[in-house]
Every structure is written in structure tokens, then in C-alpha cells.
């Protein structure tokens, strides 16, 4: 078992505290010393510059899938030179009628250094990566991996 700690900080500052004007900007501080500026999505009166929680959620799913996929490829002795993903999360009403990220579509593009696995092996690798991804195992959101390459 392991713990993963993030400190999230916000303060009102000089802003009024009414729904339409309070500042949504905040910080995420990670144990490695990295600080990431966060805010609400602009649709919800946030600042468009910082990362919003919905983007972070999609990034976490994409990153976890990629890291798990790379581990699977390395164990199979398939050499990956590059892995790029254009991940897209869909905010919609779930079955309970609440707003949620209901789907994340991963669109990985993989550059192989040597022989590429055939389509069936690649699909099995992505399926296993999804099954083994810690983040995917922690959520109910539908995750779809588009055909890569």
C-alpha cells in the first residue's frame, strides 16, 4: 500500500465572496516540490490559464494508462520510442442526473523502435493496461481507447 498526498490551497484574498465574483484560483502542491496552478473551468467562472479539475482527471487517466501500457510493452520486449495521447473527457449528466465526467476517450499514437505488434496484440495490450491502471480502477467513468496509430 502507498499514500499519495497533495496539498490544495485557496484563499479569498481581496475579492468579494459572492458566487459571481469570488476567485476560483488555487494551488496544488505535490510532495516532489511541484506547484500547479488550478482554477475552475471558465464555464464555471474560473480562470482559463490554470489547470481545472476536469482536465486533471482526464490527464490522470491518460497518464496512468500510458505508464501501464509502457510497462506491458517493456515486459513484452516491445520497444516504444514515443507515446502521445490526445485524451478527451466528456462532462455530461450521469444516470443519477448529476454532472460528471461520463466518458474519457484516449487516442494514443505510438511510435515503435522495432517490430510493431499486430492490431489484435495491441488491442489486448490496451485492454490489459486499462484493467491494470490504478486510476481507471478507481472510477466509474467509461474509458475508451481509440485505435492507436
Please explain how this structure is put together.
The chain is of the alpha+beta class and 149 residues long. The protein folds into two domains: 6-44, no CATH class; 53-145, K homology (KH) domain (GMP Synthetase, Chain A, domain 3, 2-Layer Sandwich). The protein contains two helices and eight strands; from the N terminus they run E-E-E-H-E-E-E-E-H-E. The chain has helices at 53-75, 119-132; strands at 6-9, 26-30, 35-38, 80-85, 88-93, 99-106, 108-112, 142-145. It has a three-stranded antiparallel beta sheet, with no helix packed on it. The mean pLDDT is 95.
Q: How far do the termini sit from each other?
A: 35 Å
Biggest sheet, spatial arrangement of strands = 1-2-3
Unreliable runs: none
How would you sum up the major sheet? 3 strands, antiparallel
Whole-number tally of structural domains: 2
Q: Could you tell me the number of beta strands?
A: 8
What is the count of DSSP helices, taking H or I runs of 4+ residues? 2
Helix share of residues? 10-25%
Beta strand %: 25-35%
CATH superfamily of the largest domain: K homology (KH) domain
Helix and strand composition category: alpha+beta
Q: Main attributes?
A:
elongated, three-stranded antiparallel β-sheet, alpha+beta, 2 domains, single chain, 2 helices, 8 strands, GMP Synthetase, Chain A, domain 3, three-stranded mixed β-sheet, 149 residues, 25% helix
